[in-house]
Amino acid sequence: MTRDPRSIHVAILLSLYNGEAFLNRQLDSFIEQTHGDWTLYWRDDGSTDSSRAIMLSFQTNRGAGRCVEIDVGSSERLGVTESYVRLLEAAPAGSVIAFADQDDVWLPEKVARGVDGLSRASDDAPGLYCARQILTDRALKEIALSPFIPPPVGVLTALAQNIATGCTVMMNDRARRLLTEMQPAPPFIMHDWWAYLVVTAAGGTVEIDQSPVVLYRQHGQNAVGAPSSWWRRACAAIRRGPGAFMDIFRSNLSYLLEHRRFLDPHVVAILAAVQNGLGGGKLTRLRLLRRFPHLTRASFSERVLFRLWFVIG
Predict the structure, then answer these.
(1) How far lies 184's CA from each of 88, 194, 274, in Å?
(2) Which residues of the chain have pLDDT under 70?
(3) Is 309 helix (H, G, I), strand (E, B) or coil?
(4) For residue 91, which of 28, 164, 172 has the smallest C-alpha distance?
(5) Which residues contact 24 (CB under 8 A, 6 or more apart)?
(6) Is-cis flag, bond preceding 5, omega within 30?
(7) DSSP code at position 183
(8) pLDDT at position 244, please?
(9) For residue 20, what is the enclosing H or E element?
């Protein structure tokens, strides 16, 4: 971006589903942003509580003039990822995109930090920003700081692990256009991993902010939630087992190869080699791991488990 970051318009995308308990505090945190040039694009994904009524009140009162409802009056239940696809399609060209969840609280500098981070990416290439979070309980009492975000090292790592938590993700217009052109999203993964996977595979820039920008509320009904330690993440992976993990890996790989026209030929060649190797036996897969050292995950325990799952799954 060559424009003054303060002049960048931000399209905040918010999908609702039975979020009445926490929604108003999140909406207040939008108003409190130090970067004031934003519009909220929202849709209700078939809520049966007062979520839509809360949004309409916000749209009429403290959010007047900066809210746009998508799929007005629809009660269609699309699910999280498809709902965000609809919002991406509705967002205006030229805007920076910010994903939002209904139950979090944005710190005042959240949007400004994202816009500043994306200003280091070229407008001609897809760019994505993500950051750490302060994990809290349902009453916003701090639990812990989310884990350190490992630096992105390429598409092979993005196939195996998401590092971009959706409530912090922002992206430039080139990334938005790429996602809308490459829809539908692959099965099994959420909109944040999809965005990170596509931007990385297309040779884009991923800006990491190690400062927390969101109070990430953990309340037992999160669409995903955030395990606060490597041990919990490892235990969750063990419970899922190699079959579920490799189903996701293969799905992500197939998705990218089905959209190879959007990717650099060098990336396509690497992806094709991995796909071919997966069709072989255990020895062939071990050779793949040696040939492509970035075919891995972030922490030591996750790397060990990934290599085991990759060989036997």
Answers:
(1) 12, 10, 23
(2) 1-3, 220-238, 240-241
(3) helix
(4) 172
(5) 54, 58
(6) no
(7) P
(8) 87
(9) none
Report d(CA 67, CA 49) in Å as an integer. 20
* Contact assessment for residue 309 and residue 245, using Cβ atoms and an 8 Å cutoff: yes
User: How many CA atoms lie within 13 Å of 148's alpha carbon, on the beta-carbon side?
Assistant: 4
- Give the pLDDT score at 271: 98
Across-strand partners of 11? 39, 97
SS3 99: strand
Instruction: State the DSSP H helix or E strand holding residue 179, giving kind and residue range, or none if neither.
Output: helix 173-181
pLDDT at 298: 83
Torsion angle, alpha carbons of 254, 259, 261, 263, to 10 = -70
What was the pLDDT predicted at 121? 84
Q: Are 301 and 234 in contact (CB under 8 A)?
A: yes
Give strand pairing partners of 43.
15
Q: Which two tokens stand for residue 91?
A: 């967002």
**Angle of helix 80-90 versus helix 191-201 axis, rounded to 10:** 60
270-291: per-residue pLDDT in tens?
Answer: 999 999 999 999 999 999 999 9
pLDDT in tens, 55-83: 999 999 999 999 999 998 777 899 999 99
- Kindly state the helix (H) or strand (E) to which residue 127 belongs, with its residue range: strand 127-136
